[in-house]
Design goal:
The structure is a homodimer of 321-residue chains. The radius of gyration of chain A is 19 Å and the shape is globular. The N and C termini of chain A lie far apart (41 Å). The first copy, chain A, is 37% helix and 18% strand. Chain A folds into two domains: 202 residues, Rossmann fold, CATH 3.40.50; 95 residues, UDP-galactose 4-epimerase, domain 1 (Alpha-Beta Complex), CATH 3.90.25.
């Protein structure tokens, strides 16, 4: 790879991926509207030769065409990641995920770029009936607008792979943790305990079981699949995750130990954090492991790494207290 | 049901469904932009008390709200059905199917209508690996923009069912034949032989195997599932088809016999009619049959019924010769 574009490249996962792509020798064009992404996350990257930020929206076809020109791959990580609030803004996932992905694919066609990595999610399995859930699990029924929109994106990406000979790598992530993580359970609990270390309110019954993956492990997996399938047209689908899970109450334990806090924990009750939440996400990762990839950090270590980063980077959470 | 709306209700399947709903006592509001639908198909219906045509586009939110007000169910049959030409207009399926379905769901929310039948397709199974293909087949990879867009619609409909307590009946059709059929293999072959009974050009190798269903059987299945699930929130998914298949060359045989034609048949070759075409579609219909439904016509009889209708209704094909 000599030149690549990362949409959402100033975001949590996108900026970590952009750094690694640059370290491997690529010129990286970041497209980001700096809504959930942050300038701080790309400030080092942008000092490197050939690396630029094109600030703007992925719905802007002209911007995309300028960004993609001359690229070998597009890493499409931009998305509306407000999973939980889909029902409050039911067309947001459609516009920011599904329609945006269509625009990305059209801009690729227009500029002759035919290799795409698409960041999907384990949420597309709805409420799975097989655990760990493999890529070819029984055809699921969607339970969230976020999952539905990501499934729609996968469909578009796959149809372009078949119809226009695109090489597509689709990665279905569990929740990701690590440096620059600014959205999700661990972030919410950390901030809540910084505000008030004596009391913590938890959605659901605290028994929701989740698999997490460390962001550098996630990036390694993406790069492993990408180099494996380079110039191999078709849709290549991979689950990315660890083989372990934690329940919400356990990750709270890691955070309170780290902060030396002893809050009273209040569970709001019910087995789901919100409507459409999955009570258990655990993905079968045999397919990506068969390419030689393995996660390096346990979930516990990924949480600790995240907390270390919070402590060293107050700017990322202090103004949101 | 006292009042219902059928989008695409002047189309092939929609108008047959509208007639049956009216015959069972419902007032039917038809929404159709008369692009592939035809006024002739609803002219009888519109003489019935309470039955009206609201001419316009399903992307028009205000039109939808007026149409849905006071309805018990929305039967969302409007779609871009130009399956084959998806790659020539790659955003059309997204707009006319995915975005349109989002508009329908939003208009339902706005008007308090919470029961929807969605017309989906066996194309969402891509190139299946299990035959007959059940509703919970291994998670497929999409091979056509049409299938991808219908899958996206299913996801939206299911997410609304979970998130807003909608009752959703999702029917995945094989190809449908019968009265008012004006689009597809049998139509193309009939017209071609009317133009030139001595020569017939066939896409692919003529061995593509398809399952077809007679339109009145299709409508009966929809009504069976609808009354079974009335007031049962959630997403209920059904395959609709027959248990038999025909290969393209066999349906050509039925048509040439009917027309007493003896054309030389030219196969263009390859095992697919077009990129993204499925070489074999055969759906497992045990789930809908468990509700007591069975198809009444064989595929051969459905083709013959279609040809009878062509002969009696020259207006439907003559001007397209």
């Amino acid at each position: 790879m000599t030149r690549v574009c990362v949409t959402g490249g100033a975001g949590f996962i996108g900026s970590n991926l952009a750094d690694r792509l640059q370290a491997e020798g690529a010129e990286v064009v970041v497209v980001d509207n700096i809504s959930t992404g942050r300038r701080e996350f790309v400030s080092d990257l942008l000092k490197r030769p050939g690396c630029i930020l094109m600030e703007g929206d992925v719905l802007d076809q002209d911007l995309l065409k300028r960004a993609f020109t001359g690229c070998d791959w597009v890493f499409h990580l931009q998305a509306n990641a407000d999973v939980r609030y889909g029902l409050d803004h039911p067309t947001l996932d459609l516009e920011q995920n599904t329609v945006a992905t269509s625009r990305v694919l059209e801009a690729m066609r227009a500029t002759g770029v035919r290799q795409i990595v698409f960041a999907s999610t384990g949420s597309i399995y709805g409420e799975p009936i097989v655990f760990p859930t493999p890529e070819d699990a029984p055809f699921p029924v969607q339970t969230s607008l976020y999952g539905a929109s990501k499934l729609a994106c996968e469909g578009l990406v796959s149809a372009y792979a078949t119809g226009y000979d695109f090489t597509a790598v689709i990665c279905r992530f569990v929740s990701i943790l690590g440096e620059r993580y600014t959205h999700g359970h661990v972030f919410d609990f950390y901030r809540a305990l910084k505000r008030d270390p004596t009391h913590l309110k938890v959605l659901g019954d605290g028994r929701q079981e989740k698999s997490y993956l460390y962001v550098q492990d996630c990036v390694s997996a993406i790069l492993t699949a990408t180099s494996f399938h380079e110039n191999e047209p078709g849709a290549h689908v991979y689950n990315l995750g660890t083989e372990e899970t934690v329940v919400v109450d356990d990750s709270i334990g890691v955070i309170t130990d780290y902060l030396k806090a002893s809050p009273t924990v209040e569970h709001t009750g019910g087995d789901l954090g919100w409507v459409g939440d999955s009570p258990l996400i655990l993905l079968d990762t045999a397919r990506i492991q068969a390419l030689g990839w393995k996660p390096q950090l346990s979930i516990r270590d990924a949480i600790l790494r995240t907390l270390d980063w919070f402590e060293a980077n107050e700017y990322a959470w202090r103004n949101q207290l």
